[in-house]
Write a structure and sequence with these properties.
nine-stranded parallel sheet, 14 helices, about 35% helix, globular, binds guanine, binds zinc ion, phosphoprotein, EC 3.5.4.3, hydrolase
């Protein structure tokens, strides 16, 4: 039988981004998904007869979307702390370094407990999936076994994920929330080995030094080596607030900048994603560009902790790969729709400060939340838009659910509906979510 036969066929409106178009709207289109979950074809409805012969499907098996509904690519959260979800929406009254010591480290310490971890990790995976996050790049905690549990739970609910066991061998604030250098290195190796052994199709490990101030030079060096010899993804934090930048300058006097610290230890690669980057210099942005490393823009967190405002226009001008992140729980919202809105607010605040500033449009943030995120995580060969050959990671948006948070009028175009959804919509409008062709929302009744 035909290996590439279409297993699922949808007909209706598809909205996605391409390199040239931040929002491309494909009306009355047919899209086929093969049994591997990959997009096998994308064609105009007037070609449907021909397509059905080539891809061996019955016209009666086509799923016709309703008027006003559309598919968009699943959103990519390029930076989220799964354990911090337990206190999301609270504790936002201190700047970063004090916030970490007072709230974050004491909570993360509790994830030695598998029961506690199972509860939070199940909730955060379900919550983000319901909100259209088909791919999440997670920080877990320093605990290997519950970090593996996060991978297991993402796999159980069908979310695509990069999962990092956090590494930190420096922490004066909270006893028992750090590792010895040796332990951090050994446990990272065990984490990678164990996670890869489980062969979850959509869940991969990512090397995760918390950030330079919580790592010794020896640990940074070892993590760079491990990433290099196994060709792994890397994530950390950079230049989030000014006090942190000054601290790094003091702690690493031999390095010319914060970015140079990560570069020095082989942690700035084309598979690296660094959260924040609010206070990077042009020279540092050039180092990002040269290395192919990406930035995760986490606007809710940057505002909530008063860290800074990332100038997205400037990052884009430097041609640095860029995605959006929720940074739960420095950011209080687990929804990527919120990340888009806060990113728009930040861009407009920059214009209020400087009327000559060229703001970034909602269409560009739509791209950053989907295709941009996939590029930031070096997954754009697999996900990010509806290109034939990529996995079908998608969310079905309905503007006309009974309790919709916005209204549609006769004169509204698909573009208007998209803009209303991005500004006003929520998980009520996200009626179905697909990862690699599998429908993962609504959840199975047993879940
Ligand atoms: N820098 C180091 N650790 C963290 C964290 O958990 N959250 C944020 N926002 N910044 C960090
Ligand atoms: Zn973070």
């Amino acid at each position: 039988s035909n290996e590439s036969r279409a297993e699922k066929v949808f007909r209706g409106t598809f909205v996605h981004s391409t390199q040239n178009e931040a929002v491309q709207i494909l009306e009355d289109t047919v899209l086929g998904v093969d049994k591997e979950g990959k997009i096998s074809f994308l064609g105009r409805a007037d070609e449907v007869k021909q397509l059905s012969q080539t891809w061996e499907f019955q016209l009666s098996d086509i799923r016709q979307l309703k008027q006003g509904e559309f598919f968009m690519p699943g959103m990519v959260d390029t930076h989220i702390h799964a354990p911090q979800y337990s206190y999301a929406g609270t504790a936002l009254d201190l700047p970063l370094l004090q916030w970490l010591n007072k709230y974050t480290f004491p909570v993360e310490k509790q994830y030695r407990n598998a029961k506690f971890a199972e509860d939070t990790y199940t909730k955060v995976v379900k919550r983000t999936l319901k909100n259209g996050t088909t791919t999440a790049c997670y920080f877990a905690t320093i605990h290997t076994d519950t970090s593996l549990l996060l991978g297991e739970i993402a796999d159980r609910f069908g979310q695509r994920a990069l999962v990092g066991k956090v590494c930190m061998d420096r922490n004066e604030a909270v006893i028992d929330y750090k590792e010895s250098t040796k332990e951090s290195v050994e446990e990272t190796k065990r984490f990678i080995y164990e996670l890869l052994k489980r062969k979850y199709p959509q869940v991969k490990p990512i090397i995760t030094p918390r950030f330079a101030p919580s790592c010794s030079e020896e640990l940074l060096h070892s993590l760079g080596q491990i990433a290099k010899s196994n060709d792994l993804h890397i994530q950390s934090h950079i230049s989030e607030n000014r006090e942190e930048v000054a601290l790094v300058k003091n702690m690493f006097p031999a390095c010319s900048s914060y970015t140079d610290v990560y570069r020095e230890y082989n942690l700035l690669t084309s598979k690296t994603v660094m959260a924040h980057g609010c206070h990077l210099t042009d020279k540092e942005l050039e180092m990002f560009k040269t290395s192919g490393a990406a930035i995760s823009h986490c606007p809710n967190s940057n505002i909530s902790l008063c860290s800074g405002m990332l100038d997205v226009r400037r990052v884009l001008k430097h041609n640095v790969k860029l995605g959006l992140g929720t940074d739960v729980a420095g950011g209080y919202s687990p929804s990527m729709l919120d990340a888009i809105r806060r990113a728009l607010d930040t861009s407009k605040a920059l214009k209020i400060q400087n009327p000559g500033y060229e703001t970034v449009s909602y269409k560009e943030f739509f791209r950053l939340s989907t295709l941009g995120g996939s590029q930031a995580l070096s997954l754009d060969d697999t996900i990010g838009n509806f290109e034939v050959g990529k996995d079908f990671d998608a969310v079905l948006i309905s503007p006309s659910v009974p309790d919709s948070p916005f209204d549609v009028f006769e004169s509204d175009t698909t573009e208007n509906i998209l803009e209303k959804f991005l500004n006003l919509g929520d998980d009520r409008n996200i009626v179905e979510v697909y990862v690699a062709g599998n429908r993962v929302v609504p959840f199975e009744k047993s879940a």
